[in-house]
Amino acid sequence: MSGEILLRAEGVGKRFGGFVALNGIDLEVRAGERLGLIGPNGSGKSTFVNCLGGSFPAHEGRFIFDGKPMAGLAPHRRGHLGLARTFQLPRPFNSLSVLENVTVPLLFGPARETSPAEARARAMACLEQVELAGRAAQHPRELTQVDLRRLEIARAIALRPRLLVADEAMAGLSHTEVAQMLELLFRLNAAGTTIIMIEHVMRAVREFSQRLVVFVAGNKIADGDPNEVLAMQDVEEAYLGR
Amino acid sequence: MTVKTEAALRPRPALPAGHIAFWGGAALLCLALVAGFRVLDNEYAWFAGYFILQYVLLATAWNILGGYAGYVNFGAAGFLAVGAYTTVALRKAFGLDLLPCIAAAACIGGLLGLGTGWLALRLKGVYFAIATLSLAVLLHTIVVNWSFVGGSRGAYVLRPASIPPFVSYGEYLFVVMLVLAVIGVGIARGIEGSRLGMGLAALRDDERAAEAAGVPTLRLKLVATTLSGALMAVAGAPLSHYTGYLNPEAAFGLAFSVNAIAMPLIGGAGTWFGPVIGAVLLASLQQAATVTISSAANLMIVGVVLVIFAAAAPRGIVGLIRGGRHR
């Protein structure tokens, strides 16, 4: 956890009408770190990711990624800078094959492979990383839930990200599948990718995270060692009630 | 590596060999059509052929935005009319021949498409469709009040009897539209197998996921609206020469907008071949109805066929042929 600060959120706020989804969030993520982000449903985790990825503009505050402010940057430009994300519900390109799904970020991402053939070869390498190479010619509708999650990750890593935000990548997976997904995320992190894991599967969060952040009702209520954070009374009350 | 995986890694078909086969095949088809019609020696054949080819180009142009990018344009007639009135205006102002007018129509249609895209592409789904419909209404109002091009009275175009080496002006118009249609279909086919086509397919399937994957969605949509607008205007550019008289009701006719949508949907939207099949099928049916029943039956035919396909083959004829394969 000794890397330089890769991402800094400074007072990020987001409202939907009168509803405050994020209330002045400050957060730092260091290069190479494995950060867990948890909170009950509606606590603002996905809104934070959407603001970070540029899908929604933040009403206040700003993100600084790798020393550069990201205000006003279109989502695809953020991807080119090295910020990749997966979606809570897998969002594959259904008319394209699994291989083509992963080819898209290679054709349009920061690397901009010179030829489609090169991009396809690189895409296959990404699929091999997530153990999906055998299904390259299939279409997303033919994939199981865990394979769809793998495809999301393959598409994200094809951008060669410095920071990967995995938004509930374990949701709906079996015990064994969670273990496989964790192994994959550990491997990516070991290869140098900083990872923010947003998750409800506590076993995975506890095992994966070096640091844990908790959101409740748009506020950051805890930030620290996972075991200490999970033992905090505020965190327990946020999940189980008073 | 399994056989399936190797097949997946194989490049898509739009490679030089495929291009040669396409352009060679298209050239042969064009020659065969012209030779066949000459043998028929019937002016109506050129007339009907032009009608069908005009729709091949219009449907192909619509498909670039509607089929590849998933943005439905209800204002195809507006773009077509811009092309038609570009020819009328330039001919009257400078006495230009048809071919330079077609080139000018492409530029103006492209600029209009770019402008429409810039203003409207932040809208999605039905809102974008309504915006394009509004654009057609706006253009119609402008033309009705523009006396230089005849306003609501319309404008006559005196066309020459023939242009050598063509036997008749009808043959000349047919050949011009044939070449334009082949170019249009070739452009669509080129897009389908290209980086642009892949990006458009991604944004059609899921725009947010495409953005997250690094696809510059707004830029690609602007390219699509520009190309689509240019080709629609080109489809309309010779219209005044074809009919000899052009008025706003004819140029902005509902049939153009409905056919531009129905033909790709029936043939198979999102594929280069689908609009060609749909246009040939529907335009032929409409021509047959015009000479046997009444042109008033045309839109009814389109409606009936569209309902049948929406219920029985929502992915169109190409989807039927491909069977279980995913789009």
From TrEMBL, chain A:
Q: Which PROSITE patterns match?
A: ABC_TRANSPORTER_2 (PS50893)
InterPro entries recorded: AAA+_ATPase, ABC_AA/LPS_Transport, ABC_transporter-like_ATP-bd, P-loop_NTPase
Q: Name one GO cellular component term.
A: plasma membrane
Q: Which residues form a coiled coil?
A: none
SMART domains assigned: AAA
In the record, what terms sit under GO molecular function?
ATP binding; ATP hydrolysis activity
Would the keyword Membrane be found if you checked this record's keyword annotation?
Answer: no
* Start and end residues of each ABC transporter domain: 7-242
One Pfam family linked to the record:
ABC_tran
Keywords, ordered alphabetically: ATP-binding, Nucleotide-binding, Transport
Q: Which PANTHER family match?
A: CONSERVED COMPONENT OF ABC TRANSPORTER FOR NATURAL AMINO ACIDS-RELATED
- Annotated protein name in UniProt: Amino acid/amide ABC transporter ATP-binding protein 1 (HAAT family)
TrEMBL record, chain B:
Q: Where in the cell is it found?
A: Cell membrane
Gene Ontology cellular-component terms for this entry are:
plasma membrane
Q: Which Pfam families does the record match to this protein?
A: BPD_transp_2 (PF02653)
Against InterPro entries, the record matches this protein to:
ABC_transp_permease, LivM-like
Could you give a GO molecular-function term held by this entry? Answer: branched-chain amino acid transmembrane transporter activity
Q: Which residues cross the membrane?
A: 20-40, 47-65, 71-90, 102-121, 127-148, 169-191, 222-239, 251-273, 293-318
Q: How does the record classify its membrane topology?
A: Multi-pass membrane protein
Listed A to Z, the keywords are: Cell membrane, Membrane, Transmembrane, Transmembrane helix
Please report the name of this protein according to its UniProt entry.
Amino acid/amide ABC transporter membrane protein 2 (HAAT family)
Its source organism is: Humitalea rosea
